[in-house]
Each structure stands twice: as structure tokens, then as C-alpha cells.
User: What shape does this take?
Amino acid sequence: MSTESLKTITGKRIILGVTGGIAAYKIAELVRLFKKAGAEVQVLMTPNAEKFVTPLTLGTLSEREILTGIFPENETGSWTKHVALGLWGDLYVIAPATAQTMAKLATGMVDSMLTAVALAGRCPVLICPAMDHDMYEHGATQKSLSVLRDLGYEVMEARHGELASGLIGLGRLPEPQEIFDRAVDKLHEIALERQGELAGKKVLVSAGPTREAIDPVRFISNHSTGTMGYEIAAAAARRGADVILVSGPTSLDVPHGVNRVDVVTAAEMFTGMKAHSSADYTFMVAAVADFRPTAEADSKIKKDAGFDGISVEPTTDILASLGAAKNENQVLVGFAMETEDAVSNARSKLERKNLDWIVVNDLREPGAGFGTGTNAVTILGRDGSESNIPVMAKREIAEALLDHVLADLR
Assistant: This one.
């Protein structure tokens, strides 16, 4: 394997499903190959797979806990683990894939973490069948394989050779190096597809807080760090877009390939967003102040001079302005942070402001909100759709959001 190939999968996230066939003993070598190449590997096992290779072996090699049941023990939020993993992975490899597991996948049956992630995941799936010759050639197995291909799964054909039964014929699992090479090729293909996915498109993103001056020292603002918006801008740039990032005050570095426009006040952000409102995709992520003082004091307001309060006025509703002006070829995505009735309030905002999508999170939900490296969101569509993304890193949220919004292009 070339150095270039190894670099390509550094940091890639591979879900490896292991089912109950004798060839499961070979998967330790496959895990080793993926890890040596710099990939992260999450192993999922069916209960029967544990009869052929121990979770301790694969867990030690992958450096992650092995998951089997749909509801992992002693883990907060375990009921959404299959959803989170389905969004986490770049590629799902099932090896060996038994006749039973393939039949379950072909009919949508869910009885383990392995099958649940296959249904919940959005990443490509590579199936590697292994069984005795007559089982492999049986019409039921071939029907399952045909259905899986129709569902978009890629199948590595079983190899011809000596089988555990002593027979010679089709049914052998491809060697770990073969599976590894095909997985690397698949990850290359995915990377190339994504690199050009937004080529020629202009993406506009707002991020961070705004500041509305009270006097030369004090201002009205909020706790936004800008991280979520910066991650979306970076993800769009990685997919080939021409990205403009209109940013309020943050301590973040400009993402590679992104053009940043620095602003401070809501009025400045409105001007910056309007200047680039012809964008194909706009993500209004910034936490813009809803109110500003009607006047800024010329000098610092002294405590001992007394204080009668601050008179405020509304700032311009940037999102509503963009929604009113957008055409049918543009996509406008709004963000909403709520502390109660999150989905209903966000749905109302989506309709009032003529948005295509709105991304809502609840400030009170653990792992979501300002100043965290993670987030948890619900994506609402103008068509009435609703998709929940559980707690995960904001970079992963950004990728999942782009996948969701760009789904029609694939």
C-alpha cells in the first residue's frame, strides 16, 4: 500500500461489523491493518461472532469498547448510540457477513447494534460474505445479495478455495489485505466525490456573536464562541465551495480555504450578509443580538453617578430579510437556540422567515449549546421533515448537516 493511500485514511472512521462465521478469526488482522494506516475503528459484533473471536481481542486491537446489543450497558443516551455511530462512520465494513445477517439486512430486521447501525447509517456499506459453498450458492442467499446491491450496498464476492467444511468452492472470505485495499479505494472514492460536491457553488456562513455598545467600555452580547459556524464553513470548503464567512468577534482561526469578513455589530453583520446574499447556500449560524442600545454613551458610565437603565431598540432581522429576498434556486438554513418548546418554536420561525431548513438545539440539553465542543440538534425541513442528530463533536454535526442539506444532489 502506497504512502499516499495511508495518508488518505488517517483519521478516517471505520465501522467494522463482525458476524458469527468461522472466518471471524481473520478480522483481528483487518483491524490491525486499519489501525496501522491511521484509521479509527469501531467494532460491532453479533452475539454469535463472540463464539469465534473474543471481544477482548478486537477491543484491544481497536482501542474501543466492542458493541453488541442495541442498548449498550452503563452508557448515557445509549438508545441513540446506533444513530450517533451511523453519522460518525465514513465507511461500514461487514466481514464476515453470514447468510443470516445478510437476510436480516435485506429485509430491514434489527436485532443487534450491527444491524441497527446498518439501517441508521448514512455512510457506504461494504459487505464481505463468507460461508460454506452450498449456503453461498443457495437461491435465498443470492436473493439477499441481489437485494443488498439494489439497496446500494457494495458486495465483495466470496472467494473460491478450501472451506472450513473441507469442501472446495465459493464461500471463502476475501483475505484481510484484499478487504483493506478495497476499503481504502472506497474511502478514496468518497473523498473525491465530496471534494467536488460543492465545486462552483458559493456558500455564505455567519458565525459568532455580535456586540452592541453601551459605552466605550461595555456592550451587550452573548456566549457564542462561533465554533459551530466555523465548522460548517470549513466543511463546505472541504467540499469545494467558495466560502464567505461573516464572523462576529471570536478567537478562532480562519478555516483553510475560507474568506472571512470580520464584523462587530448586528448592523455590520446585516451589511456583510446582504453583500453576499447571492450565495447558492446560506447558513445563518451567528448569535445576533436582538436588541441594541438606542444610543451609545460618549464616555464610561460611572457607577457613582447613578443609573436609570438602558433604552433599547430591535436590531434588523437578518434572517427574515434574507428569506424575503431569496429565489427558488437558493437554499437558506437558519439556526435557533431555544430553552423551551424548541421544535415548535423553530418550526414557526422556519415558516415565518421563508427558510428551507432550520437547525434547532435546546440550551438545556447536556452537550449542546454555547462553549462546548459538542452539540445535539434537530433539523427541520420546509417539507415537514424532522431529523435528530444526537450529541457529537461540532465538526461531525457540520458534516452531517451538509450531508442532510445536500442529499438531493447525490
About this structure: The longest strand covers residues 331-338. The chain has two domains: 3-195, 202-292+310-409. The CA atoms of residues 20 and 49 lie 4 Å apart.
